[in-house]
Amino acid sequence: METKNLELKPKYTAKDFASDVDVKWCPGCGDYSILAQVQRTAPDFGELKENIVWVSGIGCSSRFPYYMNTYGFHGIHGRAAAIATGVKLVNPKLQVWVATGDGDSLSIGGNHFIHACRKNMDIKIVLFNNKIYGLTKGQYSPTSEKGKITKSSPYGTVDFPFNAIKLADAAGATFIARTIDREPKHMQDMLKRASSHKGLAFIEVYQNCTIFNDGAYAPLTDKNTKEDNVLYLEHGKPLVFGKNKDKGIKLDGLKPVVIDLNDGKHSVNDCWVHDEFDNDSTRGFILSRFIDIENMPTPIGVFRQINKPTYGEEYWKQVQDVKSKKGAGDYNKLMFSMNTWEV
Q1: Over the stretch 136-167, which tens digit does the pLDDT of each residue have?
Q2: Of 47-56, 153-162, 238-247, 277-286, which range is least confident?
Q3: Are 300 and 329 in contact (CB under 8 A)?
Q4: What element of type H or E holds 156?
Q5: Mean pLDDT calculated for residue range 245-261
Q6: Which of 88, 185, 203, 233 minimizes the number of CB atoms within 10 Å of its CB?
Q7: Do 109 and 57 meet the contact criterion of CB atoms below 8 Å apart?
Q8: Could you tell me which of 167, 150, 148 has the C-alpha nearest to residue 158?
Q9: 201-206 and 124-129 as β-strands: parallel, antiparallel, unpaired?
Q10: How far apart are CA 223 and CA 231, in angstroms?
Q11: In angstroms, what CA-CA distances link 75 with 55, 100, 175?
């Protein structure tokens, strides 16, 4: 009987993904939690360490590649998604992750982020959203709330903030999720889900900056208020929240409405049932707007997950099709065949 030598992946632990570089974030920073959850879940990503790459831009979050015992690339401000795109295209077998902040990816890097989503690049983007520029010492960011007083907006911002989930959805990301730095198990689940998704996987992490924006997400993390303000999205389950699970969300046409499940007029059967695999993006878009609507709970979990061809698949398919018809290309022939001149 013929036997085949099968390459068995090693059984990694979290320690296998921790580098020997000293972690340098401020005490209490939410980045520590994100790093810990990534290292704990990385053994479940289904890849050899040498096939995992972390790419970053500039910011507190962008130190991330140094702390992961994988390959990594510390890029320049806002360019992480573009660099990650190049890495994935050149070597499709790699699992490519991006660590980025709200300032890094939604300001100078906004264009690259949008087009990575549009192309459905097979990369995973983890957005550390603390609603502030932390590394440059506390200026308002694209996700800071209107009226935010900071060093660069002493009289309050007049900007309206970016809604990262809504932006990713509109741009075409095929896996969209949100989690919170103080929800470690939930974050682990989101990371595992993203690791197995083929296409642009986007996870927004609400992350606390203890120095320059402490308590930005206090209503969602304080034990006395979180249950009335956080809505856990679970596929196939009704949108119910509250300390006693006595509040629900129903759709009045396309308008989400909070209902009281104990008022004798409504029941759980009236609630919107979440479908994360819905190809119609309308409900996902409505969910993304909850944070912009007064008195609505903040959803965390997977908003939407769909399958469609990735840019890399289409790109390499086209390359092979052209080669089969015209043969392998000749660089010198291409460069000197036409439209060239001597000076």
Answers
A1: 999 999 999 999 999 999 999 999 999 999 99
A2: 277-286
A3: no
A4: none
A5: 96
A6: 185
A7: yes
A8: 148
A9: parallel
A10: 14
A11: 7, 11, 24
* Cβ atoms within 10 Å of 97's Cβ, excluding its own: 29
Radius of gyration of the chain (CA): 22
Provide CB contacts within 8 A for 253, sequence distance 6+. none
Token readout for 56 is 């970053």
Cα 289 from Cα 257, distance rounded (Å): 12
Closest CA to 301 of 250, 256, 236: 236
Q: Residue 265's CB: how many other CB atoms inside 10 A?
A: 9
Asked if 272 and 258 count as a contact pair (C-beta separation under 8 A), the reply is no
Per residue in 261-285, pLDDT (tens digit) is: 999 999 999 999 999 999 888 999 9
What 3-state class would DSSP assign to 178? strand
- The alpha carbon of 277 is separated from its chain's Cα centroid by a whole number of angstroms, namely 17
Tell me the mean pLDDT in the region 294-310: 96
Instruction: Place 338 in a pLDDT band, splitting at 50, 70 and 90.
Output: confident
Per CATH, domain 14-216+308-314 is 3.40.50.300: no
Amino acid letter at 336? F
Query: pLDDT grade, residue 7 (50/70/90)?
Result: low
Please calculate the CA angle 240-202-158 and round it to the nearest 5 degrees. Answer: 80
6, burial (CB in 10 Å: exposed 0-12, middle 13-18, buried 19+): exposed
Q: For tokens 């903040």, what's the residue? A: 298
Q: How far is CA 186 from the centre of its chain?
A: 14
pLDDT-derived band of residue 1, with 50, 70 and 90 as boundaries? very low
